[in-house]
Amino acid sequence: MRKGYIGLDVHKEFIAISVALTGREEPVYYGKCSSDIERLVGAIRKLLKKHRLLKGEVQLCYEAGPCGFVLARHLLRMGYLIEIVAPSLIPVRKGDSIKTDKRDASKLARLLRAGELTSVHIPDSSDEVIRDLCRARTDAVDEQTRNRQRLTAFLLRNGHRYTGRSTWTEAHVRFLRELVLQDPLQKIILEDYLQAVDSSIERVARIEEQMRTCLCSWKRRPYVEALMSFRGIRMITAMITASELGDLRRFTHPGQLMAYLGLVPSEESSGGRRRQGSITKCGNSHVRWVLVESAHHHRIAPKISKELSRRQEGQSREIKALSWKVQGRLHKRYVHLAMRQLHANKIKVAVARELCSYIWDLYHIVEDSQAA
């Protein structure tokens, strides 16, 4: 059966198009068109007509990048077969030092025909909206941290240091408000920094309130609430994990989820020698970060605290049993690695890697209960 493989080199203003037909012939460069979706669809239709191909006989692909998934979703709705490929996993020839849009599009078409490309998951539009909201909250927290650091650095340059037990408490803010500086202009600068800190705090609170509101109508709410029954995972972490990972049924084994999050060790083995290095750190860094933070909670002996008990209200006996099993297993793992005097970061990563398997199990438990 004759088939066509279309490579799209997508940019903000234009898209370069190449097509490779079944066989061993070199891909044919079709040209560039506007990045407007309607213009691209028109160009694809002309291409199919030129090569006498039907819609079901072509497969398209483009690299994951800043242009997102809108184009892929539109083409999928129209009945086209399209993949978004991982740029970091595209094979590269050692001596290939020339890079142009034409070459990139042709390379994608050729590798797609050869089956050498690794596709990424195209998230559901509702999941992507929640994911953008979670990432906006992370950006707001980062900005809040930077504003606080700028204020602290300004005071340190001028010889002022807070000696209290905890920073950014009511006592600390009162100390900053009542601080007497040598020059009146410095007081204006201090007040400007304080206003920036207050504004960033309000922004974080506003986004978190919006997250609570959106959770009520989100289709993954049962899974998020089940995740919150785990120790060290509250609403923010649970929503980030659920929105970033999406449908976990695409992973047939928890080991695939661990590899997707870059939590598995790199390896360079040959012959009888086996050498493992640091974790690969490929895949979704946002989820990897929050899971490593959650793993730190398992250094404490297992217990059902008042807060955790409140989060587990309404959950099934099976989910509560899994939550308790996770605490016991991960705490034992944490203590065992600590007794081996491993670095604290290595311990947290190892615990986070094992936590992935329970997150995978929990998703299937929730999905099976909903299906029943």
Q: How do the SSEs run, as a string of H and E?
A: EEEHEHEHHHHHHHEEHHHH
How many helices does DSSP assign? 13
Mean pLDDT across the residues is 94
Distance between the terminal alpha carbons, to the nearest Å? 42 Å
Proportion of residues in β-strands: 5-15%
Q: How many beta-strand runs?
A: 7
Spatial arrangement of strands, main beta sheet: 3-2-1-4-5
Please tell me the total number of domains. Answer: 3
**Amount of helix:** 40-55%
Secondary structure class reads alpha/beta
Low-confidence stretches: none
Label the overall shape: globular
Largest sheet: 5 strands, mixed
How does this structure look, described?
- With 372 residues, the protein is of the alpha/beta class.
- The protein has 13 helices and 7 strands.
- It has a 5-stranded mixed β-sheet with strand order 3-2-1-4-5. The chain has a two-stranded antiparallel sheet with strand order 6-7.
- It has 3 domains: 4-114, 2-Layer Sandwich (Nucleotidyltransferase, domain 5); 125-219; 222-371, no CATH class.
- Helix 9 crosses helix 13, helix 10 (285-295) crosses helix 13 and helix 12 runs antiparallel to helix 13.
- Helix content is 55%, strand content 11%.
Structure at a glance:
This protein has 372 residues and is α/β, with parallel strands linked by helices.
